[in-house]
Amino acid sequence: MQEYQRKFIELALSKGVLKFGSFVLKSGRTSPYFFNAGGFNTGEDLSTLGSCYAHALVDAGIAFDTNTEMHTLVCIFFVLCTIMVIFVGYLKNT
User: Fold this and answer.
1) Tens of pLDDT, residues 66-78
2) Which stretch of DSSP H or E encloses residue 22?
3) Contact 82/25 with Cβ under 8 angstroms?
4) 50 and which of 9, 14, 25, 80 could share a cystine (Cβ 3.0–4.6 Å)?
């Protein structure tokens, strides 16, 4: 297991985002786990999540060779940078 994968699982478990048990989903199906990404609710959580996703993309060796794919990555990059600035500059010490 890669370090970023371990961090992702640890974050999901510590925030209660990933739960194990027996859950009835909206579809009526039963699942042995439940994942509620809404629990990632701080700048620090989003920073860790963004780092994990970035490492996963690089590790997957995905080739981004079209303008649409590159535009999407640039947009994601700017959103993550904005979140980082908000966390570091405004929320970390509150």
Assistant:
1) 666 667 777 777 7
2) strand 18-24
3) no
4) 80
Residue 40 is encoded by which pair of tokens? Answer: 């990632």
Q: Which of 18, 94, 10, 91 is nearest to 52 (CA)?
A: 10
Pairing, β 18-24 against β 30-35 = antiparallel
Query: Amino acid identity, residue 67?
Result: N
Burial of 81 (0-12, 13-18, 19+ CB in 10 A): exposed
Residue type, 2: Q
In eight-state DSSP terms, residue 66 is S
pLDDT in tens, 39-55: 888 878 888 888 888 88
Distance CA 79, CA 90 (A): 16
- Find out whether 21 and 34 touch, Cβ atoms under 8 Å: yes
